[in-house]
Specification:
By secondary structure, the protein is mainly alpha-helical. It has six helices and no strands.
Length: about 120
């Protein structure tokens, strides 16, 4: 599945299905680390039942989600939330047009700079 297909598939999911997906992610990462629910819950500072609900996709809140993601060492999943400043193509073209293209002499009069006399 390519990136476009994946994005379309994600966009078509219900909120409940996304919660299930997030829960499955947490559970899979926990199991890969060979840790119990209690170990992750303790590391995250949440109750084990909170983790259980999150893994089942049946509850939890954003703070608990962040704490659990931190506890399983998966904070990089949030890099997609980073806001990157982008310059519009029109503004970039305007900036490039205004940028001086050559050093040496003014393009207005097409005269080279005066050389010092000896």
């Amino acid at each position: 599945m390519n990136a476009v297909d994946t994005a379309n598939a994600i966009n078509s999911l219900t909120d409940s299905a996304i919660m299930q997906l997030m829960g499955s992610f947490i559970k899979e990462k926990r199991l890969q680390q060979n840790k119990t629910q209690q170990q992750i819950a303790d590391a995250a500072g949440v109750d084990r039942t909170t983790l259980l609900k999150m893994e089942n996709g049946s509850g939890g809140n954003m703070l608990s989600f962040i704490q659990i993601i931190r506890a399983i060492g998966e904070l990089p999943v949030f890099t997609n939330f980073e806001i990157k400043e982008e310059i519009s193509p029109l503004l970039l073209a305007k900036m490039m047009q205004q940028k001086k293209q050559r050093a040496g002499y003014s393009s207005k009069n097409n005269l080279p700079p005066l050389s010092p006399t000896k």
